[in-house]
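General statements about sequence and structure are easier to judge against a single worked case. For one protein, we set the task of working out the structure tokens from the amino acid sequence alone. This step matters because it turns folding into a mapping between discrete strings. The amino acid sequence and the backbone structure tokens for this protein are reproduced below.
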Amino acid sequence: MIPLRLGRETARRTWSKTLRRPVQLTFSLVQPLFWMLIFGFLFHRFSLGPAYAGLSYLDFLLPGVAAMTVLFGASQAGIELVRDLQTGFAQRMSGATSHPGWMLGGKVAADVSRLLLQALAVALLGMLLGARLRPSALGLVVAILALAAFGVAYGCLSCWIALRTRAQESMAVFVHVVNMPLLFTSTALVPTRQMPDWLAAVARWNPLTRVADALREAVLFGRAPNAALLLPLIVLAALCFATARHAMARAAED
């Protein structure tokens, strides 16, 4: 089928461009390593509360850093798209097919699969630093699906911004202005019991909190997260994908 081949070739091209630029892959592992080294040992005496009794701060931090890896990586999904728009490649490809959604799907699939592998590499690095994991097979399935849905949603949001603005500067603003508030209003770094009441209320609605907590359930407590958490993440991913697909179809008309 032509649409399926289009998606596959777009995914292959995205992976090829990533492998030709190993600096991005290296930085995506070095940055989480710094987070774990600095925060993990700086706050090793941090009280996590009874819900995390017997766990070190590094244990608690590792799933949050894995979720952060997907957050920061997905937020840059639109950067390559900006380059393709500036050279006219994206417009030509979109105009040459009646299936722009498959192009977007292929790109996002390649980006999310890479980010999941990076999250796995972060988990292995954390274990080398001393984090103790007690994974559950079923829990990991649910948590990985949640992580993938979050990556799709945020990656599509990044692509939508790229398609609408077509400027590198807007992507830099998105990465720095949106990522940090999303990070610091989540439970990626601290549990809700250590937050002010108003911040804890915000954190409960943060999708990054849902992903980080699902990972903790799966790898720290050896149990499956509530599968109901997948629904809002899947709905968010579908909405963001539909929005980015519409913007890609519009790009073919310009």
About this structure: The mean pLDDT is 82.
